[in-house]
């Protein structure tokens, strides 16, 4: 939005759908898995995050890096990497645990790998991907409940299809 460009999704509506305004980003570490253009990395930075790491495919991470630099959002690291289910994210992120993890519409590609929960210090926001992955909404909720002490469905995305948005706490 700061660049005057309209994307294929309404980022400001997604902030509302994800209820990010309810999260205190001040002095927190944030990991955005599948960060695309870096919108949510920039969002966390502007709300006081002390360190933000966005991970995505090399071409997407490069675009996100250039946008953040143009906006003068300097304390965001972008990792140009195709990550997998058995990845040791700490090796390239440089942080063992993140206070806030954004895992938005990437479960179709990665599932719910162990490293996701091992790196979670406090809050995990999951936006279920709507692609046909064979995982029901209920199954996603059960997977998250097996790894987190508190899981709640906080809403649904509605721009492509109706998919649950879940907030998990360690």
Summarize the structure in words:
This protein is 32% helix and 27% strand. The chain has helices at residues 11-18, 39-46, 58-70, 89-93, 107-110, 114-118, 137-147; strands at 29-33, 51-56, 76-80, 98-104, 120-127, 150-157, 163-169. Helix 3 (58-70) links the parallel strand 2 (51-56) and strand 3. The mean pLDDT is 90.
Topology (elements, then pairings):
Elements: H1 11-18, E1 29-33, H2 39-46, E2 51-56, H3 58-70, E3 76-80, H4 89-93, E4 98-104, H5 107-110, H6 114-118, E5 120-127, H7 137-147, E6 150-157, E7 163-169
Parallel strand pairs: 1-2, 1-4, 2-3, 4-5
Antiparallel strand pairs: 5-7, 6-7
Key descriptive features of the protein:
single chain, alpha/beta, seven-stranded mixed beta sheet, 7 helices, globular
Structural class: alpha/beta
Helix content: 25-40%
Measured between the Cα atoms of the first and last residue, the distance is: 32 Å
Q: Report the average pLDDT across residues.
A: 90
Strand percent estimate? 25-35%
Outline type: globular
Radius of gyration: 15 Å
Low-confidence stretches: none
Which strand order does the major sheet show?
Answer: 3-2-1-4-5-7-6
How would a crystallographer describe the biggest sheet?
7 strands, mixed
Q: How many runs of DSSP E, i.e. beta strands?
A: 7
* Count of DSSP H/I helices: 7
| Helix/strand order | HEHEHEHEHHEHEE
């Amino acid at each position: 939005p700061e660049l005057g460009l309209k994307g294929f999704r309404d980022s400001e509506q997604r902030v509302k759908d994800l209820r990010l305004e309810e999260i205190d980003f001040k002095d927190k570490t944030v990991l955005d898995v599948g960060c695309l253009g870096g919108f949510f990395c920039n969002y966390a930075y502007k709300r006081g995050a002390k360190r933000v790491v966005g991970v995505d495919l090399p071409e997407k991470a490069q675009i996100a890096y250039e946008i953040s630099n143009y906006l003068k959002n300097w304390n965001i690291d972008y990792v140009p990497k195709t990550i997998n289910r058995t990845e040791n994210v700490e090796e390239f992120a440089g942080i063992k645990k993140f206070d806030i993890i954004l895992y938005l519409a990437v479960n179709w590609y990665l599932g719910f790998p162990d490293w996701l929960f091992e790196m979670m210090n406090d809050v995990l926001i999951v936006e279920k991907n709507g692609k046909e992955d064979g995982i029901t909404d209920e199954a996603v909720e059960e997977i998250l409940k097996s790894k987190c002490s508190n899981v709640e469905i906080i809403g649904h995305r509605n721009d492509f299809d109706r998919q649950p948005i879940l907030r998990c706490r360690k």
